[in-house]
Design brief:
Strand 1 and strand 2 form a beta hairpin. The relative contact order is 0.20. The protein is built from two helices and eleven strands, in the order H-E-E-E-E-E-E-E-E-E-E-E-H. The chain is an alpha+beta fold and 202 residues long.
C-alpha cells in the first residue's frame, strides 16, 4: 500500500517537473559561432535566436564578454541593431558574469520594431586578431510575451582568446639549473666519503 502511494507521489512530482520545464523560458541565445579568416584577422559570427514566449523590443540588448583582440570598425549586424564596445558591461540586472576589465565587451542593442519568438534574429559579427576559441559569458535582456516584464538571462558562448605560450618540454628553468649546479658537488662529496669509509672498513 505504502509502495503504491510512494509511486503515485513520485509520478506526480515528475509530471510537475516536466510541466515547469516546458513553461520555462530564456532570453536571447547564441546558437552557433563560426570563425573565418578576414583580411589578416578573423571574423567571429554569432547566430542569435529569440526563444518562444519572449519578445524583442527596442532597447533590449545582449553582451558578449571578454572578446579578446577586438578590431573596431569591422562589425556587422542585421538592420535595427547597433554595437557599442566597452571594457565593462553592459550587464543586465540580476546576472553576475565574470568580466575582465582589460578586455573588450561587445553589446548589440535593438532599435527596431517589436518581434515575437521563436525566431532567428540573424548573424552578428565582429573582428578579432585571434582565432583560438575560449568560453566566456553571454547575457541578454528581452521582454516576456505573456506580461511584458523584463527577462534577463545568462549563458556561455565561444569567444576569441590570445595565444598561450608554453615552454617547450625538457627545457629547465634557470632556477632549476642553479639548484642542480649546487647539488652536484655535494653528491660527489658524499660518494667520495662513502668510498673512503668502505676502504677503511676493509
Amino acid at each position: 500500500m505504502f509502495r503504491k502511494i510512494g509511486l503515485v507521489r513520485l509520478f506526480a512530482v515528475a509530471t510537475m517537473t516536466v510541466a515547469l520545464a516546458n513553461t520555462a523560458s530564456a532570453g536571447l541565445l547564441p546558437t552557433n559561432v563560426q570563425v573565418d579568416p578576414e583580411a589578416g584577422n578573423f571574423r567571429w559570427t554569432y547566430a542569435i535566436v529569440l526563444p518562444t514566449d519572449m519578445k524583442l523590443q527596442s532597447g533590449n540588448y545582449f553582451t558578449i564578454y571578454d572578446f579578446a583582440g577586438y578590431v573596431p570598425g569591422g562589425e556587422v549586424a542585421p538592420p535595427g541593431w547597433t554595437l557599442s564596445a566597452s571594457k565593462t558591461g553592459l550587464t543586465a540586472p540580476l546576472v553576475n558574469p565574470n568580466d575582465d576589465p582589460a578586455i573588450w565587451n561587445l553589446t548589440w542593442k535593438y532599435t527596431g520594431a517589436t518581434q515575437f519568438g521563436q525566431v532567428g534574429l540573424g548573424n552578428f559579427w565582429a573582428i578579432s586578431t585571434f582565432q583560438n576559441r575560449g568560453e566566456d559569458w553571454f547575457t541578454g535582456q528581452t521582454n516576456r510575451a505573456s506580461d511584458g516584464f523584463l527577462d534577463n538571462n545568462i549563458t556561455t558562448t565561444d569567444v576569441p582568446v590570445g595565444q598561450i605560450i608554453i615552454d617547450p618540454p625538457g627545457v629547465p628553468e634557470p632556477a632549476t639549473l642553479a639548484l642542480a649546479a649546487l647539488g652536484l658537488p655535494l653528491i660527489g662529496m658524499a660518494r667520495a666519503f662513502r668510498r673512503r669509509k668502505a676502504a677503511l672498513a676493509a
